[in-house]
Structures are given as C-alpha cells and as structure tokens.
Amino acid sequence: MESLIPAWLHDGWPQFGASYIAAWALGAALPLAGIPVVAREQALLGVGLVQVGACGVALALAWAWPFPAAWAFLAIGAATLLAQRPPPRERPEAVAAWMILAGSAFTVLALARHPQGAEQMAQLQASSVLGATWTQAAVAIGLAVATLCAVAVAGRRLLLAAWEPATARTQGTAPTLLTISAAMGLALLLAASLKVTGALFTTALLVLPVLISRRLLHRLAPLPWLAVLLAEGAITAGFALSWSWDLPPAQVAVAILGLMLAASWAWPPSWRA
Amino acid sequence: MLTSGIEANDLVWAEGLAIGRRGRALVAGIHWTLRSGQWWWIEGPNGSGKSTLLATILGELPPIAGRLVVHPWIADGGGLSVVPQHDALLPTLPLSVAEYVAFAAKNPDPAVFEELGIAPKASCWALSGGQRQRARIARALVRQPALLVLDEPFNHLDHESIARSSAALVRRCLAGATVVIIGHQVPEVAIPSGRIVLDEGKAKVTWNP
Predict the structure, then answer these.
(1) B-chain residue closest to A155, CA distance
(2) ipTM value of the model?
(3) Are A190 and A243 in contact (CB under 8 A)?
C-alpha cells in the first residue's frame, strides 16, 4: 500500500502535511474567488490587489497589528477593485499600476526597520507554501468551504452584477451590496492566503487557472471546476517536482500554470470551432 | 391605495413629470399613462432624454418635478424585462446562449430559441451582431414580463433579425404584455399604439387606440 503513495507525500507528510492541506485548500478557493475578478477584465487589478494586501500584512507584521487590520486594508482594496467603472473616473490599468507600485513601495517601507524585515519581505513577495501550521490549514479548509458555498449561492448573481448591474437590479439583486459583500469575502481569503503562502502564489492561483479555463471552454458551467482542477494539478505537480528536484513548490506550481496559459494561447479557442 | 387619476391596470402613470440628471430638467411636462397590452414607441434625437426617461421609470433617477407612479410589479422588478442599449453579450468568460438566457430564468422555455432563430448551444463569442441582439431579446422574453422595455433594439440589425424580433414582441403584446421601445427605426411589422416624441425639452404624446 505504501508503495502506491508517492514518496513526496508519504515521506514528506510528517513535516509538510499541514502545508499540503493548506495549499490544496487555497487551490480550491482562490480560482473560484478569481472568477469575478477575471469576469470584470481585472486580472491585472487582481495582481495589484494582492500587492496592496501584502502591504497590509507587512504593516500588521511591522507594527504588530492584529490580523483584522490587514484584512481591513485588503477589503478597501477589494472594494476599489470591484467598484471600478470605466472613464471618466479612471482607467482600470491606471488603478492597477497605482496599486502595484504603491503597494510594493509601502510593503518595503513597512518592513524596512523590522528586525526580520528582509526575511518577512522575501516570504511575502516570493511565496512559500511550506511551513504552514495545522491551524492555518484548518483556516484554509474553512475558507475553501465558505468560498464554494458563496459561489454556489451567489455566483450567478455576482456575475450578472459584474456584467450588467442594471439587469441585475431588475431581478431583485442589489449590485452594490452584493459587490461590497464579495469584496469583504475576497479580502478575507486573500489576507489568509498571503499570510500562509505569499503574494506570488496567491496572485497566480487567483487569476491564472481562470484565464486558462476560459480559453479551453465555450460554456460557463464547467469553468469553476476546470479552474480548480488545473490549480490542484499544478500544486500537486509542484509538490512532486520540488521533492524530486529540491525546488520551491510554490514557484514550480506558478511556473506550470504560466506555461499552461502560454500553451492555451497557441491552442485555437474552443468557441471558434 | 391609488392616487387620484390612476387606474388599477396602469403600469406607469405620469403627470407633469420633469426628467433630468443632477437636478437639471432635460424634458418637462410629460403626461403619460402606460397600460397593459399596449405598444409604445419613444423616439427623439440623440440627447433628447429617451434613456433618461427610461432610467426615471426604472427608479434609477429621481423625477425632477411632477408626479410619477410605477406599478409595484414594475417597481420591484418582478414583472419587468429590460433590453439595455449596451450590455455584456461579449462576456469576459465563456458563455453559451442558453446560459446567457438562463441568467433571466433558470429553466427557460426552449421554444424561444426557435422563435428567434438562435442556437442555444452556440457560444456568445461566436454570434453575429444580429444573433446577439436576438439572444438579448430571448432573455427578456423568457421572464414572461408584464412590461418589456427595449432600448434601441433594432440598431444595426439585418432585415431577418428585425422581422423575427419584432414578430416575437408583437406576439407577447397580443398576449397581454406591454412593450415600450426606445429608438429611431420603427419596424414595418408593428404600428405602435402610442408614441412619445422627445425634442427640445418637450414631450409630444400621441395615442392611436
């Protein structure tokens, strides 16, 4: 029986079991949360949002703020992201550039005088899925279940509110209230993911699986499941390859997803057939 | 309790209504009663206030002056279907026509696809402009609304799309639904029972029983 279990899982479990569980749970939650982000054509804003979140986590670390402070920081960023409207307010790419640049600068400044600042910064920005505690794994599972429930209950309304707020209103949905609720939930998930993993892993899992899936499908219904499947596949492959070749698993998973997206661009989209 | 002058089957009742944005009146003195089973055409040049009138009726903008009563069915959105001038039928995620229509009703009557000549399994990304507009109208129809409001529904459509779409709307109107179309191009297949012409801040309402 033992021979059927891969070595990275069998031998690595005592040390990295919580990390495996946390990464898989986040691999289920982040792509689902990324669907409304990509639906609004805000993949780059998603990157900016995670950067703002990293800044919030950095501030929380530097000044020993409680975790809710980082979440509040992210919630404001998420609400800014989801409430984006076209000009004359501001173009989304300008907001994305501001989020990425200001978020990066303030993250570094927040940790500049921290005793373990360089280490903390490296972990936040570069990402490591290894080192999660069992408490963090349990939180990640809870967030994955909550995200799944939210998508099942309000996913369609959230998409309609993103695409056509006026039509959503005629169907009894309050788009603003729904958007704010979604922003709060997204902020909570991102804050937890940033704390457990880091900016690279969180951003990649948020947008890449959905960007790949939409190239491969012509229907919406299977998209959430394909996105989660791709994310879990990349994470699992990341753990396996990193065990064999002594590489950081988060970066391997993100590299796999990046290559898959590039490959999907070469593949004719299924909807053209 | 009904306000004096309003009848039970009135969907929209306006008396001396002034519409506009940010407190500035664009059109004033609108006297209009919209009842079940009627077909209305609202027209006027660009910027004359057509979309502002629609937004006021839908409760998105407050009236500047006068009185406006909207039937609770319409006000709460339950009996209303709107085909907006611009919407996201070029969605950012893959979406079949059936899924797009299902955003309005979970189990849409499949006959509506045949009626409007669109394939339910087709991808929204692969539709022509005319097919997209027919898909929008299909989505509005599947809710079986008491009031259908369409903003510029026949713009840039070919003859077949106009004929199919307006025939479907006429059938709903004959079955008791009220149709309000905002636009420039009156299709030959349907003569409106009422017309509002908005121009230079005034509304000319004519009724052809």
Answers:
(1) B103
(2) 0.75
(3) no
